[in-house]
Structure formats: structure tokens, C-alpha cells
Specification:
By secondary structure, the chain is of the alpha+beta class. It has 12 helices and 11 strands.
């Protein structure tokens, strides 16, 4: 080969190497440039509904336990792998009651200042079955605790108005976020989950929301709190106790949210960590307040037992 040809080949190889290097550099740069939200979204997009069934079959005892559950729908998932351990009607829309407040809390954390003052005004004193009272004021961060622990409906309206300017705009934000998260069978019509024909979701979509929200450290801290003295602006405080009894009764429970309306039945989104493994369970329309906890515990126990065998 002549020196001229050798030089040309050397230049061509150098050019190809530079192109490849640039492409890899761009990819690496893109990876580094991912926002925390995009990283969280990538993680929750990892869902595998088929692998587990080829690896393990429930024994007769487990099958009987799962068949005996009163809940209309559920999903149990291993967070690290996205493996669906058990599911029932995962993609069929259901009323979700106060599991709606997971989205309300998430948006408040992402779009507001925790030190903002939020007042309970006449236009957000809607349900009047809540613990907040007309005229009271709270720091936004404190009111988030009160809303999530006590499942306070009017607190949700107050936060929605503060964050969105009005509840209509806030509901638009909720649906925009749902679309971003890939919650294809979900629609939000209010910030608290009170009965509405167009406020619905699926256990699959709510599992996506729960996994995403729990990657916000403050969200996780709020829903993992069993009790808290929530201060008011005037110096008083409110004793709040988390309605999720699994936090104190189930080993490793780290959250998340209860829900109930007559239309939705008794609902629970829960998460638990044992030996470094975290499972998420969303259960809708269980028969009673008690069974939403006992049935979630049955599912979580089954999940930890199964994953330990793999």
C-alpha cells in the first residue's frame, strides 16, 4: 500500500473514531443531563408482568389466600426489578378515593415553597368534615403532613388553590402530571378524591404514581410519619395520627396512603422494605377498614416470600 493510500486510510479511521467518540459522548452527556424527574420516570417505566409466572407458581396455600381477598383490584410489585408479583384487574379503572391525595402532595412539593402560608378560606372550606377549620393558617409543609396523615379533604382544596391558583387549574396540573407519568387510564377531577364520575384510576397507574412519588425524600418522610404535632400560624398545634395502621403493625412498612368512599370502598397504597428489598402494593375496594390492611399484609408477605425464593 502506498504512503498516500495509507495516509487516507489513517485519516478515515481517525474520522470514524472521532464520530463514534462524539456519539458516545453525546449519549453520556444526555445521560448525565437527565433531570431527577426523568431518572425517576425511567425507573417506574421498568415493569415486567410476565417473567415471574415463568419462574414460580404459587403453592396451594398462597393461591387460596389470594383468591380469598375481598378487594376488587390490586397490584403487588418489586420496586428494584419492576417485576409484578401479583395483580388483579390491574388496568381496569376504579374509583380511588383519597389515594388521589398522593398526586396532590407530589404537585405541592414540586411546585411550591414549604414556607408559604396557606389559609383555610371560605372557598376551600368545602367538605367541612375535615379537621382544618375556617380562618386557620398553616405553613404549606406542615399542612401537607396534616393532609396526608389525617386524609384531610379541605386541606387538599386549600393546597390545590395555593399551588394552582384555583382548583380547576390544579386539576389540569394533576392530569398533565399523570400523562407525564404514563398513567394512561387515570383522570383527576378534584384534589382530594371525593366522589366524582371522572375521578378514577387503576391499580397499575396508582402503583406508578406511588413509586415515583416515594422517590421524593420529603414525600416519603411525610407518608412514613405515624404521628405529628402540626403547628398553626397562631401558635396552636393539631395532633395528627396517620390513618395507615400498617406503619405501626407491619414490619418494614414505609407508607403510603389510605382511602375510602362508598363508591371506592376501602383502599390502600402501601410500601414495605425488608432486607434491602422494597415492595409496593396498591389495593382498591376492599370490604372493610380492617381488611384493606390485613389483605395488603397478606399480599406483601406473599411478595417477600416469593422474591426470597428467586
Amino acid at each position: 500500500m502506498s504512503r498516500t493510500h495509507l495516509f487516507r486510510w489513517t485519516c478515515l479511521l481517525a474520522l470514524l473514531a472521532a464520530v463514534v467518540s462524539c456519539r458516545w459522548g453525546d449519549q453520556a452527556g444526555t445521560r448525565i443531563a437527565l433531570t431527577p424527574e426523568q431518572i425517576r420516570l425511567e425507573h417506574i417505566n421498568t415493569i415486567d408482568s410476565t417473567t415471574l409466572s415463568t419462574l414460580i407458581t404459587p403453592d396451594s396455600t398462597a393461591t387460596e389466600q389470594l383468591e380469598a381477598l375481598s378487594a376488587d383490584a390490586w397490584m403487588l410489585i418489586d420496586d428494584a426489578t419492576g417485576m409484578v408479583i401479583s395483580q388483579k384487574y390491574a388496568n381496569e379503572p376504579r374509583f380511588m378515593a383519597s389515594l388521589t391525595k398522593m398526586m396532590t402532595c407530589l404537585l405541592a412539593l414540586e411546585n411550591s415553597n414549604l414556607e408559604d402560608t396557606v389559609c383555610i378560606t371560605e372557598d376551600v372550606f368545602v367538605c367541612r368534615d375535615s379537621r382544618v377549620r375556617l380562618g386557620e393558617g398553616y405553613l404549606l409543609g406542615d399542612l401537607l403532613y396534616e393532609m396526608m396523615l389525617q386524609s384531610d379533604n379541605d386541606a387538599a382544596y386549600a393546597l390545590a388553590k395555593h399551588v394552582g391558583g384555583d382548583t380547576i387549574r390544579f386539576c389540569e396540573m394533576m392530569n398533565e402530571k399523570a400523562a407525564y407519568l404514563g398513567m394512561e387510564n387515570t383522570h383527576f377531577a378534584n384534589p382530594n378524591g371525593m366522589p366524582a364520575p371522572d375521578n378514577y384510576s387503576t391499580v397499575g397507574d396508582l402503583t406508578r404514581l406511588a413509586r415515583y412519588a416515594m422517590r421524593d425524600s420529603l414525600f416519603a418522610a411525610i407518608v412514613g410519619t405515624t404521628e405529628k404535632k402540626v403547628p398553626m400560624i397562631d401558635g396552636r398545634h393539631m395532633d395528627c395520627y396517620n390513618t395507615n395502621v400498617l406503619l405501626s403493625s407491619y414490619d418494614g412498612c414505609i407508607g403510603i396512603k389510605t382511602g375510602f368512599t362508598r363508591q371506592a370502598g376501602y383502599c390502600l397504597a402501601s410500601a414495605a422494605t425488608r432486607e434491602g428489598r422494597t415492595l409496593y402494593c396498591v389495593l382498591l375496594n376492599s370490604r372493610s377498614m380492617r381488611t384493606r390492611f390485613t389483605e395488603s399484609a397478606v399480599l406483601l408477605d406473599y411478595g417477600f416470600r416469593v422474591m426470597k425464593q428467586l
